[in-house]
Design a protein that fits this description.
The complex is a heterodimer of chains A (491) and B (90). Chain A is an all-alpha fold. Chain A contains 20 helices and no strands. Chain A has two domains: 6-190, no CATH class; 195-490, no CATH class. Chain A has helices spanning 6-21, 26-45, 49-68, 77-114, 132-147, 157-164, 167-170, 178-185, 193-227, 234-265, 283-289, 292-308, 317-332, 336-365, 368-373, 376-398, 402-411, 426-443, 450-458, 461-478. The radius of gyration of chain A is 24 Å and the shape is globular. The relative contact order of chain B is 0.21. Chain B is globular, with a radius of gyration of 12 Å. Chain B contains four helices and no strands. Classes of the chains: A mainly alpha (491), B mainly alpha (90).
Amino acid sequence: MSFVEVEFAFFLPLVLIAYWLLPRARVAQNSLLLVAGWLFYASWNWKLLSLLVFGALLDFAIGRSLGSRSLGDVDARGRRMLALGVSLVWNLGALAYFKYSGFFAQSFNELMTAIGIGASLPVLHVILPLGISFYTLQRVGYVIDVYYERQKPSQSLLDFLVFAGFFPQLTAGPIARGAELLPQLAQPRQLTPKLLASAAGTFLLGYMLKAWVADTVGTTFVDPVFANSDQYSSGLHWLAMLGYATQVFADFAGYSLLAIGTARFFGLELPINFDAPFISKSLPEFWRRWHITLNRWLFDYIYNPLVAGSGWFRGRFYSALILVFLASGLWHGAAFTFIVWGLMHGIGMAVQRGWDEWYRGLCRKDRKYVTLRKSALYGLLAWGLTQLYFMLSLIPFRAGSLADAAGFARHMFVSNGNVTLSIGTMSALDDLLCVLAVVLLHLLELPRLRRFRDTFFAMPAPLRGAVYGVLIVYLFLFVPVGASTFIYRQF
Amino acid sequence: MSQALRKSLIDWLDDNYHFGDAEGLIGGDDDKSFLQNGILSSLGFVELLLFLDKSFGVRIERKDISPANFDSLNKIMNYVLAMPSYRGPR
């Protein structure tokens, strides 16, 4: 079951009605959320629900154990480290087994064959538990925060189990911190008209992005070009990449808004996951705006401790950046295409850092370089390069193999294909409208234009309702039948 | 609060990020969030920690390595001045 499947259209209202009919008490509300979360997960695979539940129970117990002795207690240091180690081994071990064992065994076998050694490891084909990449990071973050006393251990098993299995975010985030969700779960939630309106607006926007924008652009334009790359002209390859950037943003930002909107229906606030990434003028800015909760996790728990810690990586910004983005690539999927994607962004971040260092030197010498950096021309160039680099990095991200990626990249410059875009067809116009919708959403985040967005939300409820109504009618007419799954759900 | 420490931090921000504009960005509000107001990014914050160590001998404890602890001039100064290892202008 996912947000855009018909089962969810029955599941969500039923759970919501039951939730708000219950007494406004923490235990009652959290009990229902827990049952709903487990049902939601079991509807996908009831056997693998046990992995989710066992991991949550383990991390709850480890959190309590860590909380019983302080970080400064020298006598307890060994026991605390052991507890942290058990959690990390279990969580990351499960992730490695389910997600990477097949990939590593196969890669090892290919390497052995290539160098003429006949050794081979058995390649396991195991089901990837839904959401494991997301719920694992959420729980690992919690345990590390408790270890370092940045987070008090949860004292309620019920609250913690909901935190570890809250169904709106269970399959693809946003990855919340304990400090963000646990305090909310410790309080009873109240229903207000403002809450409902905000939840509905967010949910509708998410649905629009996913079911209309992502699925339209994906099915009518991007997929055909990637499936038969050699038949299309070079120009269409570039347009397809632009389309894919639109699709992947709309798909995942849409999912995230659906998750945030659904959580809000229950009176709970999840962290935002996207903040208009296509207005970014540098790669660091881009990663602060794209999949925010994953990137802050990678920086909080890998980059910052490495660079500011006392080990080999201390002060080695470039190596740490490449490592973090390699980890990000591997997190996205067990394939060389994702490793290349991660490497591209690690190198991109390192180059950006090198450029910034060099440019700082110029600014120190002469203030005219400060003025130049603030100019529209510099901004435009920086924006163009950032977005182009991200778009090109999507080639390995989207391709099924490195050979496909290389073929697609070649066809972007040289292609014998003669299929061109049929401008004026309904499908092409719908694609264009989808792209314009994403552009508009980004423009409304620019400081100069944000007031238009604020004006809309300040309008009387009936007027806003009418706009939502028109949007719903449009979606009914133009959403492709049989919406696809979410791209990030596979990770 | 130590004005000398404050000046060192402003100088560092100017020398690395704002080139004379740091004081203006902070606008007299030493509680202003660095992250929320574009004064320092999460990447820059790690560089700040290394600067504090190198210049003032303040070794940040691993548990404290979080942008939230260093998100404003006042937060940084409170943290730094409370560190026993601090060697610098008080």
